[in-house]
Amino acid sequence: MTANVSADQKLDDVTSEAPKASNSREASENEKNSDIHRQFREAHEGHKAHAGLDPSRASTGVVWTTERAYEHGFLENPKDWANLGQGAPEVEDDIEGCFERPHSINISITGREYGPTAGIKPLRSAVANLYNSHHRQGKESQYTWENVCIVPGGRAGLIRIAAVLNNAYLGFFIPDYTAYNEMLSLFRNFAAIPIPLSREDKYHIHPEKIADEIKRGTSVILTSNPRNPTGKMVSVPELAKIQDMARDRATLIMDEFYSGYNYTTDCDGSVISSADNIKDVNKDDVLIIDGLTKRFRLPGWRVAWIIGPKEFIKAIGSCGSYLDGGCNVPFQEAAVPMLEPGNVRKEMKALQHHFRDKRDYLVSRLQDMGFDLPFVPDSTFYLWLNLEQLPEAINDGLNFFQACLEQKVIVVPGIFFDLNPSRRRDLFDSPCHHFVRVSYGPRMDVLKKGLDGFERILKKYNAFPDKEKKYQSV
């Protein structure tokens, strides 16, 4: 790590630097009397008016929303529902141009045994070769298998990284991926520092913002790119500036799980990655997390990877022995042939065309409902939808979510993307209070069903369609 602070100093600084929301306000009567608001507060201690030291129950946003959907019958009849909340792509084999996924897995003799907690060497080598082919062409410094650690899913990768971090200020952005909240809450070897992004600036991460954070002592920065939940990309030139600023001064943890869902290069199969800008793979403090979950559409396999300097990877691999035990061997062996660079390029091209079409359909339907979308997502399969101009009964994320449940539709309330590990901020002060994340990851028929549910909600509250009125998103 590039900066150390004492435990006492961290505690004092974090306590004194608690952010004060600029839009602090009293809850409306509608919100006070809302069953879903009360249920949320009971489950998430940090959003009670007087937060306790520990939550009574912790869960990610998708898990919590799914639990509420179970209470409305989702578990018994999932096919009757439109799940636009789950952060997963469609897994069927009917996307034109994509390779067919395995329907059975061969289990070798080695697959019956414990595997290395850093992953099997053939898969580590295949990942290194993929990144060298797509992001390190012509560069002197190349990845080897020793720069790769295989982990059982992205969350496990984050937990492993957190376990090996030194005492440091760790900067994270608001809004961002819901599961970061648990990672930032569980560990005490670093102080988590929130970095709010500007709604007016479309939640963009400017290099200047990174420079300011480094100047105030932030020595670890965690972020998703492409951005979850806003669907925006930090481009390669801006990434290069950020990495140049951080080099020898801060460690970058880059969550690139949505890197394949890139619509900024006309769906040519290009993948945006910070690996393009690394000078020395063993000296640049950049840890990249990705895997089969999103861009290979295999979330059930739980096969992911971390790429970084050998020294980091060795520690991350070792801590798997007491954290998660490592990734299952048969699925690692089955993953190796999938990572041939030429096939991956074709796969990404087909993926991008298919999901861009779904994005365009989603945007068109929302605009027909009266929503004004100041920007169209240029990556991922998410849209960050602002509800503020809707009728009061449904103009915040939790109440709109509740209305969706009644129509057998699932979305994720924006509050879950307001990472709040120190539990200092009240629900109604959150900059994410009036938002929901809408996923266009599911099949087109599911997406259509979900948007039909949106229309029914707006009609029920006399809010659709009014050509003279626009509902603004973001």
TrEMBL record:
<dbReference type="InterPro" id="IPR015424">
    <property type="entry name" value="PyrdxlP-dep_Trfase"/>
</dbReference>
<dbReference type="InterPro" id="IPR004839">
    <property type="entry name" value="Aminotransferase_I/II_large"/>
</dbReference>
<keyword id="KW-0663">Pyridoxal phosphate</keyword>
<feature type="region of interest" description="Disordered">
    <location>
        <begin position="1"/>
        <end position="35"/>
    </location>
</feature>
<keyword id="KW-0808">Transferase</keyword>
<protein>
    <recommendedName>
        <fullName>Aminotransferase class I/classII large domain-containing protein</fullName>
    </recommendedName>
</protein>
<dbReference type="GO" id="GO:0030170">
    <property type="term" value="F:pyridoxal phosphate binding"/>
</dbReference>
<comment type="similarity">
    <text>Belongs to the class-I pyridoxal-phosphate-dependent aminotransferase family.</text>
</comment>
<dbReference type="GO" id="GO:0006520">
    <property type="term" value="P:amino acid metabolic process"/>
</dbReference>
<feature type="compositionally biased region" description="Basic and acidic residues">
    <location>
        <begin position="26"/>
        <end position="35"/>
    </location>
</feature>
<keyword id="KW-0032">Aminotransferase</keyword>
<dbReference type="GO" id="GO:0008483">
    <property type="term" value="F:transaminase activity"/>
</dbReference>
<dbReference type="InterPro" id="IPR050596">
    <property type="entry name" value="AspAT/PAT-like"/>
</dbReference>
<dbReference type="Pfam" id="PF00155">
    <property type="entry name" value="Aminotran_1_2"/>
</dbReference>
<feature type="domain" description="Aminotransferase class I/classII large">
    <location>
        <begin position="81"/>
        <end position="423"/>
    </location>
</feature>
<dbReference type="InterPro" id="IPR015421">
    <property type="entry name" value="PyrdxlP-dep_Trfase_major"/>
</dbReference>
